[in-house]
Amino acid sequence: MPGFELFGDKERKEVTDVLSTGVLMRYGFDGARNGHYKALEFEKTLCDITGSAHSHLCSSGTAALSTAMAACGIGSKDEVIVPPFTFVATFEAVLQAGAVPVFGEIDDTLCLNPDRLDAVLTPKTKAVVPVHMCGAMARIDEIKKFCDRNGLILLEDACQSLGATFQGKHLGCFGKAGCFSFDAVKTVTCGEGGAVITDDQTVYDICHQYADHGHDHLGGPDRGADDHPILGTNYRISELNAAVGLAQLRKLDQILTIQRRNKQILKHAMKNLPGITFRHLPDPSGDSATFLSFMLPTEDKARRAAENLAANNVPCPYWYDNNWHYFKKWHHLKQMAGAAPMPAQLCGNLPDYTRVNLPESDAVMKRTLSMQIMLSWTDPDLEKRVAAIEKALTNI
Ligand SMILES: *Cc1c(COP(=O)(O)O)cnc(C)c1O
């Protein structure tokens, strides 16, 4: 998912536009900015791409999640169902909102299993936050049905899945709001950045207000004349970051085309290797193809495959052992639950996460490896990779 591989003249041009005026803030300074509104232009482009009615750019994907939670009214002691395979930012944002992350099981989509949501539903459940991991979709139509049936908010963490679709509709567009990240290693990068998309005018209004100290942005050129209908914070993006992202976002089609081609070549080469199966994709045509995720028949074989692949210069993350992406290694969450620096209302009110058991998620994650798909691979690189994969995965 590395937009940074295509960094060049177009990014420099957008940044130079901003530097030539010296107006680094997205709001105000109308006379001095020489017509440059990079954050605004980014947001319009993101709406065009996703088909969402509104988008708001923030300082990070984590900030976008927090902003979306605020705009959806997720707060004190509400329970929010999240998957145990994600980046820690998802549960951090829930905790920041003063809400309680509750972990549901994942399945071979590597995302929340809609059939296991009932098992963690309680009267306090307010929202479900599926995470479309590694560039592709959860069983989002079924998760949406579960939310509708139970009166829950659906908020999608699509931070890793910009450009991915399910049945033609962009991920992030299925619920009340969706979030993207544009950090340094995502499909499109601003350096640091993130966005909320929504079709709901009220959710959008709260997003842009919340991320800018509650400003209603109705005061005209004088920011001091804005009113403040809500309390907020500062999750603003700078024009410099937005400028980088704008150039990157315009390359999204190119990025997706290269990723899909490279992934297809590798997947095709692995198809007939004994014992290898692939992550289940509910709609393969909508995969953004940032990763190729595959399963071995057993944990032992997966560990051996990871070692063999690394020894053949094809390192593949084994998420089950990963500190940042899988629940099993989130000791900081398990140890700190209920202690400072949690929002005060959570102290003493979080479940004992050391007792949370996720046997189905463990069973999937133990067997799964993922290969990141790079944009810069040449055809000879791909051929070498195919040969290395065949060597590493034969006779496991
Ligand atoms: C990257 C990421 C985030 C957070 O984004 P930042 O921009 O790094 O704050 C949230 N969720 C997931 C699944 C991510 O991969």
Automatic annotation (TrEMBL):
GO molecular function ontology, one term from the record: glutamine-scyllo-inositol transaminase activity
Pfam families in UniProt: DegT_DnrJ_EryC1
Keyword Mitochondrion attributed: no
UniProtKB keywords: Aminotransferase, Pyridoxal phosphate, Transferase
Leading EC class: transferase
Record-level GO BP terms: polysaccharide biosynthetic process
Domain of life: Bacteria
Sequence positions bearing N6-(pyridoxal phosphate)lysine: 186
This enzyme's EC code(s): 2.6.1.50
Active-site residues annotated for this sequence: 186
Entries under InterPro entries matching the protein: DegT/StrS_aminotransferase (IPR000653), PyrdxlP-dep_Trfase (IPR015424), PyrdxlP-dep_Trfase_major (IPR015421), PyrdxlP-dep_Trfase_small (IPR015422)
Family: Belongs to the DegT/DnrJ/EryC1 family.
Protein name: L-glutamine:2-deoxy-scyllo-inosose aminotransferase KanB
Organism: Desulfotignum phosphitoxidans DSM 13687
Gene name, Swiss-Prot/TrEMBL: kanB
